[in-house]
Structures
1.
Amino acid sequence: MHEMSVALSVVDQVEQAARPQGAHGVRRVAVEIGELAGVVPDALAFCFELACAGTRLEGAELVTRSVPGRAHCTPCGRGWDTGMPPDMICAVCRAGATELLTGRELRITEVHWSAAPTAPGPAPVPQSEES
Amino acid sequence: MCRTVDLRQAVLAKNTMAAGILRTELTARGTTVVNLLSSPGSGKTALLERELQLCRERGLATAALTADLATENDATRLARSGVPVKQVLTDGLCHLEADMLAGHLHDWLPDPTRLLFVENVGNLVCPASYDLGESLRVVLASVTEGEDKPLKYPAAFGLAQLVIVTKSDLAGPAAFDEAAFRAHVERVNPGVEVVLTSVRTGEGAGVLVDRALAAADGERVHAPVMARAGA
Ligand SMILES: Nc1nc2c(ncn2[C@@H]2O[C@H](COP(=O)(O)OP(=O)(O)O)[C@@H](O)[C@H]2O)c(=O)[nH]1
Ligand SMILES: [Mg+2]
Ligand SMILES: [Zn+2]
Ligand SMILES: [Zn+2]
């Protein structure tokens, strides 16, 4: 079960983003979890609560959004939901998919926090880092 | 005052970055990493014992690192081959991460090492999510584990660059349906090579070393569709 490692990473990354921006407390963290990412949302929510204890995220809510697996076949242009267990073979061409469009996400999307009442930080700069 | 910030950060970005750095560093040293994943008891250590022995006979500079929750037993078994071996105890952690591996290699990895085999913690769930800077990811399953293993652990099998079926000597007694197993692998990871091995009969001897050397020589390794994520 690596949901604890994942939860600790989430807390760590949110703390790192929140601190320089003067965040006081974190209310909510939204995470996208692909169907094929190998992470169980309920287990992550459980671990998240533990991982938040004693940090700026204490009491924060974790909102998870599941992203279905979607494959694409370039030769015939077909796209399909891979399902679970995933089917990566194009039903028309009987060949392997060219690409997995979605389904492997494990990404923090949004953080909702309250700014410190005394010293509001600078305007938030959205950070991006692609997987 | 509250604000919502669009963070868009991959949760495992730190590991992916550490793995990338490790891969670059090791490639510069002429070392290729092979990451071995399977359930406990599939035969990772047994296969490695045999393949390390072959490496030694062929004069290949090889090393092995084995990770377990507890005991040094696997390192003791692997060390009999005569190649440098390191045991890592993960202290309860169910998988290796790239920075942990880098830390263990730092003051141990002999120079030169052409092939470094890493026996991951026996577990088909968590290790699948962590790139270790390997150039070849191998997933093993024994004939006694059932033909539907690839469907039960799609992330592990879906990201494999080589699938090894172990204990083929037991295929008969276990009524192992090879065609069904291959079809299940193909469904989650079209095009990946599946090879049968047995340390009892010698079937598939040297296949791990051969594929590792091919990867080390820069030959194209299989690119699983699951790893070709668009997002
Ligand atoms: N019959 C048979 N048994 C094997 C084979 N490979 C491994 N085993 C046995 O399977 C058990 C687990 O093997 P081990 O290498 O420790 O698995 P690991 O946990 O994946 O490292 C041991 O009792 C081995 O002797 C094989 O090819 N044939
Ligand atoms: Mg072992
Ligand atoms: Zn785990
Ligand atoms: Zn098609």
2.
Amino acid sequence: MAKVEPRSATIEATIRALAEANAGRPGALLPILHAIQDELGYVPESAVPIVANVLNLSRAEVHGVVTFYHFFRTRPPGKHTLYLCRAEACQSMGARELERHVKETLKVDFHETTSDGRLTLEPVYCLGNCACSPAVMLDEDVHGRVTPERLDQLLAEVR
Amino acid sequence: MASKRTRIYVPSDTTARSVGADRVAAAIADEAARRGVEIEIVRNGSRGLHWLEPLVEVEVGGRRLAYGPVSAADVAGLFDENFHEGGAHPLALGETDAIPYLAKQNRLTFARVGLIDPLSIDDYRAHGGFRGLENAVKLDGAKIVEIVTESGLRGRGGAAFPTGIKWKTVLDTQADQKYVVCNADEGDSGTFADRMIMECDPYVLIEGMTIAGLAVGATMGYVYIRAEYPQAIRTMREAIARAEAAGCLGANVLGSGRAFHLEVREAAGAYICGEETALLESLEGKRGMVRFRPPLPAIKGLFGKPTVVNNVISLATVPIILDKGAEFYKDFGVGRSRGTLTVQLAGNVKRGGLVEIAFGHTLRELLEEFGGGTATGRPIRTVQVGGPLGAYIHPSKFDTPLDYEAFAAFGAMIGHGGVVVFDDTVDLGQQARFAMEFCAIESCGKCTPCRIGAVRGVEVIDRILAGVNEEANLTLLRELCDTMVAGSLCALGGMAPYPVMSILDHFPEALSARGPKQRAVGEVA
Ligand SMILES: Cc1cc2nc3c(=O)[nH]c(=O)nc-3n(C[C@H](O)[C@H](O)[C@H](O)COP(=O)(O)O)c2cc1C
Ligand code: SF4
Ligand code: FES
């Protein structure tokens, strides 16, 4: 099951509180967006006007930043996120096959969530684990020397 | 007594954990308890012998003996053979320091990596930590800059610009506030040296940044760490808090009366934010768009103030230079490439890991003596050096010495020192396509040749590989590469064509629908 959605009024209060708590920091926008995503799992559209208001920026500026960075997502993710490394060192050890395997098994493409809401698949370009390729990151845990069988096991563990 | 207990080291960095080090540590603790064996488990950093991870070490008679790669299932058997007393076992590797892969290195920047508990300030000091900073607090900024210049240290983030000269510009620029920014965006595939420093010896980076602050007159520093490195972010934050509490950082650095504050900032998954001006924009809370220069960041950098921007390895190398002197460091290396390079052997390689070695050794020595050929046992077809913008190097060039100028002489680059190995099954047509695809995904969008050119590049390569108007499309691809090289503001658009052109020049059969996709070159067995 996907996370229970807190009522939107609560979400907005949370966003405002996080924005205000960080507003005094130099270059506060990225820390604020991180704080929101850490708390809610994503940066909802409704965050844009609130953050813009707190930082005295235009909505366009805030929206531009949210969309520029691959890491920020504007829709709620699944319960877990699998980041699959697509970069060269992993390619040399079978990342392309792994990618095909994951997409076929989970029936999702990148940036999509499985129909049961359990897992979101994201591409990543290097996890700094390139001597134990191919690598994936499941939530915040990196796994190396990943075969399709090992990946199936990992995914079964977070069911 | 604690001293009677056998000390067992199980690394805790991302790589060791990615192949089961936490499970191994838990199994060792359980098994020891079950057998009533008194042990103390230390979670050290990785030694960088990644093919042997998890590499467990046991301290016996003051020496550290290695066993690896250990899985949780091996643990009971290891205890059966009394490995905690140095017992023989098929996984035994002897004394860690005597393993040739490690013994042949020149560990200067990485002197403590894997030896100590990363967050222990006592360990750090006991292994020579803070000696460089202790010297630095007694010197004026100009003298520190002179020592760093004299050492010959060049930026390890990619562009190899002399570090001392950059610092001098910041020192000489008057301002009410200056900054030191550490570039820990480490986006290049095949690289993990920055991550290892942050996870395995974080205080050396803190010490290096503090020395930089004292040198140029900056009182505030930021470490900009990529979001893909959650463990490095946690470790650096904790290390900064502890260093402040210990008086090594903060309002009164080592009692000198001088201040230097440090803060970690988390990036958000844009490769271009490794480019220093895009990084500064990002730190300011904006989109990571590359800035025109001049002005240089050294003159107008973060929030318009003079700013040192250096890579993790550049900054982490400063403490040993201030400790042992410029001459000591400069003695390593060749030509204008002084000191050591932290090579990262990655991809399809038998013995992947971190090799810190004096400049001047050849690529072949690295691939054969350290790397031991491919992991699959097949011949090496090519290596890509210097990340996604680096050339695919043909085996006929493997005798090139590791030297910035020697690589530049044939259109290649050392960059951040990543070496990604491919065996003869690699489809270099797909690798060329990926170079363009990556540029298209990561372009900041400021200039047309990069933003549009990379998308066109993917299309043209697809047509070539499908056999559509091959001749004409190959000509078009060359022209497109030339346009991107000539018309891009930064090295993303300006160098993404390099891997493509290296394939066109040295592996032409790969970019053709008819030609054999695989031709074993096989110079390295
Ligand atoms: C597209 C692009 C990406 C870059 N990525 C990084 C990076 O991840 N880490 C880094 O230290 N330097 C990176 N650089 C180089 C920086 O712009 C800059 O030269 C470096 O941070 C300066 O530090 P150094 O002199 O210590 O190497 C990149 C450059 C470009 C053009
Ligand atoms: S070359 Fe590409 S990444 Fe660099 S400034 Fe131009 S558009 Fe941006
Ligand atoms: S290329 Fe996949 S972890 Fe570095």
